[in-house]
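Example record for the data management plan.
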Amino acid sequence: MRKWTHLFLAAVLALAATTAHAQISQEIVNIMKKSQAVLDNPSGVEMVMSIRSGMGPLSMTTNMTTYSKGDKSLILMSMKILGREVKTEVGCDGTQVWKYKSRIKTKDVDHRDTLFISPEKKGNKISGGNEIDFNLHEEYRKATMKEKTDYYEITFTEPKDKEMPKKSIMRIRKNNYHFYEMESKQSGVSVRMTASKIKFGVSDNIFKLDMKKFPGATVIRK
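Corresponding structural encoding:
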């Protein structure tokens, strides 16, 4: 009897230790997974976002529209640098990857319009410089959640990797699990991504490289 009592106590202590370390509830994990599943819609997803980044008053806003469908992607970005609009396009049609940067001219820099084209390679994932991280529940040790009127606000703390921001906040719509907003701060630099539109159903024609859109651009093939 004493042996079974010791075994029972050992099991209880082990469960308590596991619970102490598991500081992220299953409810939070489920919400994150449901939001990610929404953006994996096989008909394709169009998302319009604004990204505000910088330190205090020294900040800039990037407007970004992303299209995704299976292995095809297209990211359109624009921002203002010294009063001039700078555009970037990054795309993949399943066979090739391209990246276009419009001209940037300052006192010290003068980059011409440039279009880079290369064959698609396995694992060659395109990125617009910012991505929605739906794996925060795996990258942080703790998370708390507040239910606002229209969305869930999940705050992640204690990152497993020292290079990660000490705190990241994810906001997800309550009625349909659509991504709404994500913000973080690292070394005084804050980043906030806000989605203003999510639409399902994307034509394959959107993912075609149209050379006519880049007249005068220097083309570099790799």
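Summary line stored alongside the record: Confidence is low (pLDDT under 50) at residues 1-21.
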